[in-house]
Specification:
Shape: globular
Order of helices and strands: HHEHEHEEEHEEEHHEEHHHHHH
Largest sheet: 8 strands, antiparallel
Strand order of the largest sheet: 2-3-4-5-1-8-10-9
Radius of gyration: 21 Å
Strand content: 15-25%
């Protein structure tokens, strides 16, 4: 089935944040935070001409050496479609941005926990990925990268407005945070609408997980928070923490209510789902996410065996580009040329590999 013959080999190809542990990681699968900046000596990316690209990119090369030491870089204009999709599934590239414009480049450190995107919507997007939820530590990581970058470039900044952005509505402190929450109990049995309303009052958005537009695959949701005009960094992080911790609290309360019900039928459903994941031969995308959601829930409740970090990795490993990567079929043409049965069979193989230990 795979170019890899054991679980450790598969996991070693993934960024560290996919397989690591973090605070509150029974509910928060992943936190991605970015600082977004523009250099004052260059026009915004959508208005830059080719003569400006070389000095900007050479300055980025110098900064990255000081940030990471060794790193991997991608010239996105010349990167193949499979790798672009793989990077999107690993949340390094925004879905909405066209990566093919000349001068767009992505750097990643050796762990995959830090990245630097150049000439997307702004000149610079400094990215940090962590399992679980540690916003202050994550911001400190980005701040160190930001200090190094600012030694090379003068930022476009206003004392009144903050960091200037290519879109006027994003002017401010330049922070964006995206938190992936696993909410199987809250979304079905808890005060979901109440917590969602609080998030929306704070200017945050909740959207579904999945690259195909499917609604709430596996009850995983993406909470997005942008620093707004007038808020400093500490205020943005505090608002984010209050909303995320509220989601965590109510999800855990809902899970506790499930356990207090303690029905044999509920436990039986979890074990049946575990058996399907471990022994099936064909799994569709939506079905696999629903089963994986209940696997993660059963593990967090202490009912089902297994490593939650592996379960988190499976959320990403069983998306189309990663299936092709694990199976060694990256060079076999576009995703659309693979049949539904091919993906379903390979997805089931990955689950059996992941749950076999």
């Amino acid at each position: 089935m795979s170019k890899h013959d054991d679980l450790s080999a598969v996991l070693s190809t993934l960024p560290d944040w996919m397989t690591g542990e973090g605070d509150e990681d029974d509910v928060v699968l992943l936190s991605r935070m970015s600082l977004n900046r523009n250099a004052e000596e260059f026009l915004f990316p959508h208005r830059m001409d080719s003569s400006s690209l070389l000095p900007l990119l050479s300055g980025c090369d110098e900064s990255v050496r000081n940030m990471y030491g060794q790193s991997r870089s991608y010239e996105l204009n010349g990167t193949d479609d499979h790798t672009i999709t793989l990077l999107r599934e690993e949340l390094c590239l925004p879905e909405s941005a066209d990566p093919r414009r000349p001068g767009r480049r992505l750097y990643r450190d050796s762990s995959g926990n830090r990245a630097f995107l150049v000439n997307s919507q702004d000149h610079f997007s400094l990215l940090s990925f962590m399992p679980g939820f540690q916003p202050n530590l994550q911001y400190q990581t980005l701040e160190k990268m930001d200090d190094i970058l600012e030694q090379r470039f003068s930022y476009a900044v206003s004392m009144d407005l903050g960091y200037l952005r290519s879109k006027i509505e994003r002017v401010g402190n330049g922070i964006q945070a995206d938190i992936w929450l696993h909410l199987p109990a809250l979304s079905r049995f808890g005060n979901f609408s109440e917590v969602l309303a609080h998030a929306q009052r704070e200017g945050m958005q909740l959207s579904s997980f999945g690259s195909r537009g499917d609604s709430s695959l596996g009850q995983v949701y993406q909470l997005s928070c942008r620093g707004v005009l007038g808020d400093n960094e500490a205020e943005t992080l505090e608002k984010l923490a209050l909303v995320v911790l509220e989601f965590i609290h109510y999800e855990r309360e809902s899970r506790r209510s499930l356990m207090e019900g303690g029905t044999l039928e509920f436990i039986d459903v979890l074990w049946r789902d575990y058996a399907v994941l471990r022994h099936s031969r064909l799994l569709g995308l939506r079905e696999s996410f629903e089963l994986l959601s209940r696997l993660s829930l059963g593990q967090s409740l202490g009912i089902l065996p297994g490593d939650r970090a592996v379960s988190r990795a499976l959320f990403f490993l069983t998306q189309p580009a990663h299936i092709r990567h694990v199976s060694g079929s990256e060079g076999e043409g576009e995703e659309s040329e693979q049949t539904v049965d091919d993906f379903a069979r390979q997805r089931a193989d990955i689950f059996r590999l992941g749950l076999s230990s």
